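Before going further, learn to read the protein records used in this course. Taken together, the tokens spell out the fold as the letters spell out the chain. A record is reproduced here so that you can trace the correspondence yourselves:

***
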Amino acid sequence: MNFADLHFWVLLLAALAVCLAARAVVAAAAPSALRIFDHLALAAINLTLFFSADARSCVILLIELFITYTLIRLALQSGRAARFAYLAGVIALHVAVLGYFKYAAFVTRDILHIAWEQAPKVIPAGISFYTFQKLALAIDTIRSDKPLPKLLDFFNYSTFFPQLVAGPIERRESLLPQIQAFSFGLRVANFSRALPLLALGLFYKLVLADNLAAFDRHSVLEPNAYIVWFATFLFGLRIYFDFAGYSFIALGLGAAFGVNLTLNFRTPYASQNIREFWQRWHITLSTWFRDYLYRPLGGNRHGSWAFNIAVVFIVSGLWHGAGFNFILWGALHAALMVGFGWYSKAGWKFPKFAAWPVTMLFVTFSWLFFYETNLAHLKAKLVTLFDWRAYGLHNAVQLKMLYDIPDRVPVVFAILLSLICLVVEYRHRDLPNPYTPLLDWRVSCLLIFGTVLLTASEDSPFIYFAF
């Protein structure tokens, strides 16, 4: 579901209108049936929107959903040994499906060098996200012997449309009780919470991320270190405002339906070290890996903590994309995390004035491995960055030639606008919700006006839809 696409909003409003009209009839004819109607209406909206966005992924999700539900039921009715056999079956099912659709082409083409024409060429929308969400519920339910939710509640938990395609990856304890207590209707309190989130999310996406995308030149291959650094810096801004924008829209849509979703970002570009960055960036994915991979491996309890971190980040890299560059990106962050861990255990600390710029330098550098999927180009850019001759004055002057004269003022304006937002975030980084000043209704009015006035002329897809 593309929140930046007018078709999504038209379809959502149409579905809401139909459901609300039907609900009025049910309320008049059979008030006692309202509870089941509300849950069925939510299921219908979830299914309609997702099927419209990607019919193939919707079918895959439904098949996995019903098999998973059946295996959880069987597990809860079985003894301890059989229970964990069923859990292993659930995990194997989801890993196999995700592996086939996301990694089959990569393994056969890039690792085994086999030409397999039948390998999937397009990743089903949201499969990485809804796979992890269903796995989390299955693991928590079977391992902790929690009650099996009703099938309809399990369906709505697994398909809740605001966060289905790109998160946040919700847990049983946070989302399921809200789904079970769901009540359909239009409430002023819900919309008063939803509108500032929607305004901020749409501004981040349509104004900041999409305008930055218009000036993205990361595909340029020049032996010029300034161009590489500038393109990587722009990509770092773009991916943050793109993904955070999506997440705020998801939170806003959830709030409109009376559902509180998890804040997925906490001003990550205000981080003072690499560990803090991963505590603030894509929070629900980081905590998922912590709880379902890092801790089962042993976490910090054993001497192998560095190995455990390496496994988590390399797997995280692969989760983000099927490519060697993503493995390298994960390995780089693993090295940074392990290095920071040793540095901290030794009792050393960066000077306060250096902590933030050093962290941002490392984070920005790492985005090069994320976006450059061509290994030959990646190698060439790395060689450029570590070649002192690529930092000559001539290359600095050449940077301005990256853009035509009419584009130079807009790209500077887009960067300045982005930096203003980041400064506001940084100044409020210690608040429980550091985005609170940007959610003030007066700021929301400015953001709405700015979105109408400054929306990019060309749409760009949400970056995380590719994962």
Observations:
- The CA atoms of residues 227 and 399 lie 6 Å apart.
- The chain has a mean pLDDT of 90.
- The first helix runs from residue 6 to 29.
